[in-house]
Design goal:
alpha/beta; about 260 residues; 7 helices; EC 3.5.1.100; (R)-stereoselective amidase; hydrolase; Nitrilase/N-carbamoyl-D-aminoacid amidohydrolase; eight-stranded mixed sheet; C-N_Hydrolase; six-stranded mixed sheet; hydrolase activity
């Protein structure tokens, strides 16, 4: 692993997909002007987090949102971790993330496994859960990818560590009610559990369709310390990831060795 700069995009999704695409492009441009090597988008960045919009804004793989992410990765020579968008496959819709390298080539994808079916809202009314997970390699780090409600399931994160993850991206759209209670807790716990950097871009809060979003895009250290909290408003932050912190945390607290030595 080596040092890199990650650009966090916190965007408020509107009821106009064309606007969302244009605004995302503007924010990615700002992140790249600030020197980002990797840019991370939030969950459902092109689509308000509502079942009706998942159906209305769904795309097949390779259509406009996908092509824009691919184009921006190549234009700026960055890795783009594409948050997630609603992707249709036959009669099913997936909450799916794509990762593109600096040549604009898709190198990884992940469909959200654990669907948010609590608090009077059922994501599964429209979305089908994914069935697999893994890591992708860059010259900066081995990276894992999970989405939002996956944060409640530490076994998924441990699997990513077993696969070699040093950094984990977790695009999200927590609601205000659950965000107040669990957002920071989940980020800090999963970062400490895995001894990875946890990079969690979120949808911004606004007075329209994203008025219930918790926001607070966050970067957490391998020690479980909050390094960046972007608050509620739309914006861009570029943050330097220091590779030595992963090695240091794993040396100081050798969880892997402890697991090998324990007897249950």
């Amino acid at each position: 692993m080596k040092n890199f700069k990650v650009g966090m995009i916190q965007i408020a999704s509107k009821g106009d997909k064309d606007y969302n695409l244009k605004r995302m492009e503007e924010l990615v441009d700002i992140a790249c002007q600030k020197g980002a090597d990797v840019v991370a988008l939030p969950e459902m960045w092109n689509c308000p987090y509502q079942n009706s919009y998942f159906t209305k804004f769904k795309e097949q793989e390779g259509e406009e949102s996908y092509e824009l992410m691919k184009k921006l990765a190549k234009r700026y020579g960055i890795y783009l971790v594409g948050g997630s968008i609603p992707i249709s496959d036959g009669d099913k819709i997936y909450n799916k993330s794509f990762v593109f390298n600096a040549c604009g080539k898709e190198i990884f994808s992940y469909s959200k496994i654990n669907l948010f079916d609590i608090e009077g809202f059922k994501e599964s009314d429209t979305i089908t859960g994914g069935k697999s997970l893994g890591v992708f390699q860059t010259e900066f780090a081995n990276a894992g990818l999970l989405i939002c409600y996956d944060s409640r399931f530490p076994e998924l994160f441990q699997s990513l560590v077993n696969f070699g993850a040093e950094v984990i991206f977790m695009p999200s759209t927590f609601m205000i009610k659950t965000g107040k209670r669990f957002w920071e807790l989940c980020n800090r716990a999963r970062a400490m559990d895995t001894q990875c950097f946890l990079i969690s871009p979120s949808i911004a809060r606004d007075n329209e369709l994203s008025k219930n979003a918790w926001a607070h895009s966050m970067i957490t250290s391998p020690y479980g310390e909050v390094l960046l909290d972007m608050g509620e408003d739309e914006g861009v932050e570029v943050f330097s990831i220091e590779a030595d912190l992963v090695k240091e945390a794993r040396k100081n607290f050798p969880y892997k060795k402890s697991r090998e030595n324990r007897s249950l």
